[in-house]
Description:
The chain has one domain (about 5-100): 2-Layer Sandwich (Enolase-like, domain 1), CATH 3.30.390.140. Strands 1, 2, 3, 4 and 5 form a five-stranded mixed sheet that branches. The protein contains three helices and five strands; from the N terminus they run E-E-E-E-H-H-H-E. With about 100 residues, it is an alpha+beta fold. The longest helix is centred in the last third of the chain and has 20 residues, at about 60-80. Helix 1 (about 45-55) packs antiparallel against helix 2.
Amino acid sequence: xxxxxxxxKLNVLWLKDILGLSIDIVVGKQTYQVTQYYxxxxxxxxxxxKLELDSKPWLPEKEKIFILNMATDIITYWRxxxxxxxxxxxxxxxxxATFVELHS
Length: 104
């Protein structure tokens, strides 16, 4: 991974009663899973993401802070706007995140 540009990416699974969050790292054209999905409010998703990021000292500190701040903003927004009707607005507001959709 040395010499290649790398960037953390927040994945979001927006459901009516649960918000799933996970983190990947993009290195060059490859994507690698950094964390599993954590589901808020069932678990303290933000704390779990922070704990996992802190256990990986090779990740850039600036990227960790950016991702955790985005996770905070997304959780706050989701708490106020749980309706699936606002998902398009949500995607525009948090364009840096990747939104995962479930298809039945």
